[in-house]
Amino acid sequence: MTGLFALHLVFKQTDLWLKTEGRPDRRQVEMYLNQIYQELEEYIARDKDFLNTLKPHKVPETAPKTIRDMSIYATRADVGPMAGVAGAIAENIGKRLSKNHRIIICNNGGDIYYQSPDQESLILRAPGSPFDKTIKIQVPPAVQGKGLCTSSGIVGHSINTGRAYAVSILADNACLADVWATSISNRIHSYMDMDRVLEFCREEEDIKGVAILVDHYLGIWGDIRLSRVE
Questions:
Q1: Which one is predicted more confidently, 70 or 132?
Q2: Nearest residue to 110 (alpha-carbon basis) of 166, 162, 66, 164
Q3: Superfamily of domain 5-228
Q4: What are the tens digits of pLDDT across the range 73-82?
Q5: Residue 75: its pLDDT value, please?
């Protein structure tokens, strides 16, 4: 990722870090964020359950695409639709920028959309874990974009019933990765759950890769690799 331009934006609940090949337009990204939030807030004003439920929630076909995607993917992962909101925002911004940038790393508070013709390495954050900031997750090339999203039962503001320091999920888009990160993290209460959960991930076609940090244990499966931070 050397030679990329970096941009940091804080907008409402979004803490966005961008790295792109070619300088991104700050005002354009701010406009995209404003449009996404306006769409979300207008829909939630009409459908409060969409915001508050922890269970799958159907929305009408007339709902905006981002809302429909959050609902559909959350149903597949058996969580509430807001479990995918950070990934959905990262995906939305990344896809819009893809018209002008060949390489994009769009990190929304640990939920990442990335687009690159090359393998990329992303540092894994897991506060409290002995592995925090010591491991890089190597993800495969993604010319059309993929998502790598992380959920924790130990830190963060999102509702999570598990006890993993971190569960990172690789999927074909960031919203899908986000809902599955929450769903899988909810299933981890100790290291004794790891084998069962990794086996579940192997059988779930939405999940392309997973890394789990729980207690002093680390589990990995799929189309990702781990390496130490030098």
A1: 70
A2: 166
A3: ApbE-like domains (3.10.520.10)
A4: 999 999 999 9
A5: 98
Domain boundaries, the chain: 5-228
Q: Which residues pair with 139 in a beta bridge?
A: 120
CA distances from 96 to 23, 34, 73, 92, 146 (A): 14, 13, 20, 6, 14
How confident is the model over 83-114, as pLDDT tens digits?
999 999 999 999 999 989 999 999 999 899 99
3-class DSSP string for the chain? CCCCEEEEEEECCEEEEEEECCCCCHHHHHHHHHHHHHHHHHHHHHCHHHHHCCCCCCCCCCCCHHHHHHHHHHHHHCCCHHHHHHHHHHHHHHHHHCCCCCCEEEEECCEEEEEECCCEEEECCCCCCCCCCCEEEEECCEEEEEEEEEECCCCCCCCCCCCCCEEEEEECCHHHHHHHHHHHHHCCCCHHHHHHHHHHHHHCCCCCEEEEEECCEEEEEECCEEEECC
- Identify any residues that bridge with 214 across adjacent strands, giving them in sequence order: 217
CA torsion 22-24-28-31 (nearest 10°) is: 140
Residues 114-159 pLDDT 10s: 999 998 888 777 777 777 777 888 999 999 999 999 998 776 556 6
Q: Rounded CA gap, 212 and 202, in Å?
A: 13
